[in-house]
Every structure is written in structure tokens, then in C-alpha cells.
Amino acid sequence: MQERPNDVQTPEKKKTSTAKKSSAAATSVKKPNVKKPAGKKSDGKKTAGTKKKTGHKTSGKKSARLRAEQKAKKLRSRKRWRLVGRIVGRVALFAFVLVVAVVVGLYLVLDVFFHGPSQTAGDNMAMSLFETSAAKFVPSLYYSDEEIAELKERNKTVEIKEETDTNLIVIAPPVTEEEAVQQENDGFVDGIKVEEIKGATYHGWMMTVLDPSRVMLGVSADWFDDNVGGLRIEKLAEKYNAVAAINGGSFNDGGGQGNGGMPNGVTVTQGKVCNSHGGADLITVGFDQNNVLIVGKMTKKQAEERGIRDACSFGPALVVNGVGAETKGTSSGLNPRTAIGQRADGAVLMLVIDGRQVNSLGANIADLVEIMLSYGAVNACNLDGGSSSNIYYNGEMLNDGVAITGARRIPTAFVVR
Questions:
Q1: Which of 107, 163, 231, 335 could form an SS bridge with 220, CB 3.0 to 4.6 Å?
Q2: pLDDT at 54
Q3: Considering the entire predicted model, what is its pTM?
């Protein structure tokens, strides 16, 4: 007998098959997408990745903010420097304009002096400037060479050509006790008297030293050199253990910036000629071995022949043999002055005048001649002046002086021991 094929279904099989299909259909129904709570293992990798991405974003924001702050800081710094630059520029411009205004104003003021209605005022100003080291060029800005020559010719001191007559000086003998008491009553202390003097345009000091043998020329060095500066007057006094001193003769002073190391003209100290360099037109003034003050032009050889013990050079001569120098016009400008003279009894006159100050404009040569004659000078000579003019006594400076830095360094000074 033949078997039935496999696809033939019996009623029981058919029923069973239908039930299986229904069950499979129910199982295949798609479940809804439910979000799983955070923290489950299935979401671990995704959460870490998110955190990492967020960290990169935060770091980038901080870096951008830092760069922005740095850029802003640089901009603020540039603005500040630009502001400082503008302020400095404006201040510099203001200072420049101010300097120009001052210079122009000064030029116009001087023009009024030089070309104003008063020739005397103009001549005084011009002659005062000619005698300075630093400003002697100024008059040439206003006058021609011919006008300057004429100006100097009408305002000058006529040179005295007469030689000193030593017989006119008779040195007084040592004083008795009674005479010493009288000297003290007259204001002398240890044979020295210092008086303040005043004139229309000046204020100064006259020192009288009764014994001329006490006065000598102090020098800053035994042999002079431009590379070795001079000494201030108080140091020169200390060097010789002196109680008093006034500045001495001429020295190299280019532009008013000299170091006081090299004197001009004949220079003699304690009988030794230590310089005869330059200054051929200068007047030599000093004491011979008999303590008589000699005034006049002389060479090194003539100084040795005349037995000069202490001397320096400047000029002009103020008084020779009791006769004052002849002056014309203003005679010179108004400036600080120093001079030395001698009376008939041998007493030495040492004069210093302040100048270039509100309370003391200075003196001219005619003033010095008048002062020396009034004090009985038989012979007298003008010494270096200007910022060099100083008088020292008993450990202190008596005059104010012109130099801001104090007394100038100088190569020579008349000192009193």
C-alpha cells in the first residue's frame, strides 16, 4: 500500500498550525522605544564621550577669553603710551616756544639797551659783557666791528706808562705797645682790619694789612699745567696757613670753563719765577724784596732784575706814584672786581667788590681808582674779577661771589700769613 505525501494536513494538524501562527504574530509586534535611565552600562561610553566633548568646548572658551583680554590689555597700553607721547610732545613744544620767546624777548631788551636813547646805558652793558669770559660775543650781535672799536675807544682806561717809584713808600717800623692798643681801638685785629664799603652800584670789602711782609702770592702748584686744575681760595689759604686771601691774576679760561690750572703772564712766588707764559699785554703787580708794591709791565728777566719776590699779572694799573689812572666814558663795565694797593706807610689794601647781583651790580675801573685813592693808595692795580672775585678771612668767605657752585678754582691768590 502507498504512503500519503507530507503536505497533506489533517484537521488536527491544521488547528495546531493556526495557533502557532497567531502566537508568532503576537510575538513579532514592535515594542515602543523606551529611553533607558542614565548610569546603565549600555549608555556608559556615550556619557563619557559627551563629557569629553564638553571639556574641549570649555577649554576653548577660556583660551579665547584670555586672548581677548591680552589684546585689550595691549590696546590699553598703546593708548596710554600714545597719551604719554602726546603730553611729552606738547610739553616739549611748549618748552621750545618758551625758550624761543625768552631768547627773542632778551634780544629785544638788549636791543633797547644798545640802541636806546641812552648811549651811556648801552655802553655800560656792552663793556660789562666784553669783560666776561662766556658772553663777550653778545655785543657783536648788535654792533659792527667799526662800532665796537669806537665804543671801546670812548670807554677806556688810559694806560699808565710811568714806572713805580719805590722811594715813595716808607715801611713803618714795628709798633709800640701803645700804638698796638691804638690800632685795636681803630678796628685792627692782629694788624688786619676789614671794612664793608658801598657805592651807587656796588657793595664790597676793603681789607687793610699793616705789615706788607705778611702778604705773599700763594700758588696752586709749583709748576703749572692746564691738565691740573687750580685750587679754590679757601684751599689756597689753608695751604699756606693764611688768615686771609683774595684771588690773584689772570689764567686760561676759554668760554668761562677753565679749570684754573694755568696762569697768564709773569708769576712769582717767594722769589721764584714759576711762570712767564702768555699775557704780554698784562700788567704785573707784586712785592719786591723790600716789601714795596711794584706795578707795571715786565718780563721774566725784568722781574728777576728788580728782585720781585711775589707777583702775578692782570691790569690795568689803577694808581702809580700817587696818581690815579685817567678814564674815559664808563671806563669799563660794571662787574665783580678785585684789586690790591699799598699806602705810603707800606700798609696793603686788598679790595673785593661783589657784582652781577640785585643788591650789587658791580664797579667799573673808575670806581676802583676812586676807592683806592680815598684809602691813601700810592700804587694799586686791578686783579682778575668776575666769578673769580673772592675774599677769605678767618676761615670764611666774606663775599657771596657769582659762581653758583661756590668759589672758582684759581692758580694764584694773595694770601696773608
A1: 231
A2: 54
A3: 0.78
